[in-house]
Amino acid sequence: MTQIGEIKRSEAFNNIAQIYDLARPGYPIQLIDDIINMANLSDDGRILDIGTGTGKGTIYFAEKGYAIHCIEPGENLVRIAKQHLNVYPQVTFDVTRFEDWNLQVNNFDLAISAQAFHWVNREIGYTKVAQALKDKGHIALFWNFTPPSEALVFAALKEVFKKYVPSTSNTPSIPSLIKKRKNWILNSNCYQDLIIKEYPWSIDFSSEQYLNLIKTQTVYQTFSQQQQQDLSCDVIEVINNHGGVITKPYLSVLCFAQKIAI
Description:
This protein is α/β, with parallel strands linked by helices. It has helices at residues 9-14, 17-23, 29-38, 58-63, 75-85, 122-132, 152-164, 174-187, 207-215, 225-241; strands at 46-50, 67-71, 91-94, 108-114, 133-145, 191-206, 245-259. The longest helix has 17 residues, at 225-241.
């Protein structure tokens, strides 16, 4: 079986771009509003979007009229993002890794990254973002996490997953992940006044919709075709046996800070 570490992020998600776009959730409106308000972003503010994917986080800012420059290495992901964002001419793209992007120094008021910045080489990423930001510019990194649920359907699904991924129970806790990412920002010595905000919410999925979500997980792509088919059947059976709809809890977490003026 292929190991997860052998699959590059850009390849893993780029190869399933359509399913990724269909299945992955967006973000709470309050989170977006908080970013704009805390950054005191003017109508002509410029945004750098790192790891745009299919535009799940980008669309909210584009709808408000902001000029956004998107960095995304996956060509298939960019193609879908452009379809979603083609009515917003102020949104532009570079198809490249952020580490390889041709730096535009002191050019942006705000840098955002939705569900992506942990894939960026942190020895390069945090400093490079600070260089791209104007003085007093801000960085806003946000992710969707899945908190534990006491619903019986999740206990049943966990047992199913153990057949395919025995180490599922060793997944890091959300608090430990937040602490790690908080420390990455602080230890870069590029930012000040760090704020962490959390937004609990949930989404209802049918069995087919939830299966599509599972297909976007990198580990799923390491399975053989037979394993994928078997897991799919098991998941659909479990959810249908619990009413056919699963309410999945989410916790969106925002890490927001201001660039330290040099």
